[in-house]
Amino acid sequence: MEKLILEIQNLSVNIKQRSLLIIKRLQLYEKQIMGIYSPNGSGKTTLLNLIAGCSISKEFEVKGNIINNTPVSYVFQKPVLIESRDVEKNIFMTLNSIENKEKKQDLCRKWIQFLGLDSISKKKVKNLSGGEQQRVCIARAFASNQKLMLLDEPFASQDKNNAAKIIDLLIHEKETKDFSAIIVSHDLEKLKKLCDFIITEKDLNYDKDNFEA
Asked: 88, 104, 118, 120: least buried by Cβ within 10 Å?
């Protein structure tokens, strides 16, 4: 059996005395890709933030345990980049664990090529489209080589070809490395193409009166 890398036990998240999220038990193993498909307000992004260890609003009351045994790379729904730097520098500057400059550059160029960013690698991020910026974030996450990747709506700004490219890369990483991922998406068909299992609104204890997460 593959190694357990994430376990959630009796997690509950409330906001303003309303139940946002309840998960009794959830496990993710190496070489698994989990999809999360549910309406706005069901706690999808909040769950990713908690798994990643991000700080969340004091309005949220969180109980339960999230046991994460591996570092994560996180692709946020809205690209988080240094707009005054070019594509390559945005990826390069995050690879602090690699001391050799040439190895860093080779890794940057590898993922730039894989994500179809070759022609814009020297462009400043502020001059890119939303879809291009998102692919820079995804390239940076792959280059970081963490065993668990969190992706929040990675297909939302991508055309058919680029979405297929991202799916193929995720599947390849899962099949060739000790790699796992959790993907939030409103595109159920794409999730079905690459996920080992999919969490839906009933699994998140969705309440239509909840606030959007």
From this structure: 118
